[in-house]
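ingest -> validate -> predict -> emit
validate: passed (alphabet ok, no gaps, 185 aa)
predict: started
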Amino acid sequence: MLEIRVSEGDGLSYPIGSRATRGITILIVDDAGKPVEGATVGFQLPEMGPGGTFANGSRNETITTRADGRASVWGMKWNRQAGAFEVRVTATKGEARAGTVVSQHLTEAAAPDAAIGGGFNRKWLWIGLAAAGAGAGIAVAARGGGSSSSGCSSTVVLPQNPCTSNPSSLGVTQIGAPTINLGHP
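emit:
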């Protein structure tokens, strides 16, 4: 007897037309609850409606479980039809068989679950953080701020915006505006 346990991926939502940033991982165990190595696990996406294709370009993917009894599939390319759907999962080892479904959902808008791992959103987060950090560093340098020798943190209060002031009145030399150049991801 085989049992399929869904370890990851059940109930996830993704934006239509995106690629899965998180996979589906299942665990195959025997009737004693021990992991089953070498079981053949089939994943099947729906032929019609919401869904997509696996990384191999088809709606079917077959994986063999590792020594820990796990099999994972990821990198699915989702189609452009919103709605709920199920990924069918079957497992076989010798004469033993088992099956289950994993629920997924495609949405019109970006889903929080999928956006966490998406490279595009993360890239803009890092750009924003870099720009904010650069601006803070310029402000502290312009006012002669820095860390104190006591190791305590302190707040720098600026009476005026050093970016709009005359640089010579602040006692600093103006080199130029900071820039951030980005290449292709």
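The chain has a mean pLDDT of 77.
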